[in-house]
């Protein structure tokens, strides 16, 4: 689910991870109760099918670079709670924010497949996805990463310095909407844009990108967390404010006749969007 290095994450943050945890608990309850062997056998198979999926997809995916492994490890070893408590980060960050191996390699392949030279990332955190994408950029390629938190931006920049691809990345430390408007005013344009910042601002990021012509005519937008732990399709009372925001974003995109999109069940949901010309 996350990086291929052993990360001490206990909390499932994807619909699939939550499903595995629910099946594990159900199996445990069924084993303690007097349910039939038939039900137990079926439940065990369901658990094994679900529990093995993330490990297997990761095993069958190209390994991440040593720089990405080091970055993921450093992120998991950081005491994010203390950083926030000490006022060093502007909000509570957590290692689970890092996209990780499968999604990183997916984004990297999209950059290579689309022959992108200019990439924009909205929401960088410690830089895992930014560095994964930069690794697929040509030598003269550029990636602009928007991040509001100065502490995490400098954390990422230290990691980028250890990679031969780090100098392709320019970090803009400011609220993402401010940076997007600045890029619009400067007439900038990107071949691939990855959105992964504040879920409540997703609709505004999307509209600013399309209205401001930040996306090249055959460009690709990739949007993370569009399944948001299953909240958009679970009963409404299970939804958080972020769940509401993602449900609104998904329906906004679906109703926008300027684009075509597909929601892939990669990790916490990855939507691909292209503009119809
Ligand atoms: C989910 S994390 C990004 C993870 C990263 N893309 C990766 O794959 O490892 C979201 C990041 O967006 C940042 N963020 C949240 N709201 C923002 C805003 N309004 N402007 C810029 N960055 C923001 C957070 O500080 C956090 O570092």
From TrEMBL:
Keywords from the UniProt entry: Methyltransferase, S-adenosyl-L-methionine, Transferase
Annotated InterPro entries: Cation-dep_OMT, SAM-dependent_MTases_sf, SAM_O-MeTrfase
Keyword Transferase: yes
GO MF: O-methyltransferase activity; S-adenosylmethionine-dependent methyltransferase activity
One Pfam family of this chain: Methyltransf_3
Domain of life: Bacteria
GO biological process, one term: methylation
Protein name in UniProt: SAM-dependent methyltransferase
Source organism (scientific name): Brunnivagina elsteri CCALA 953
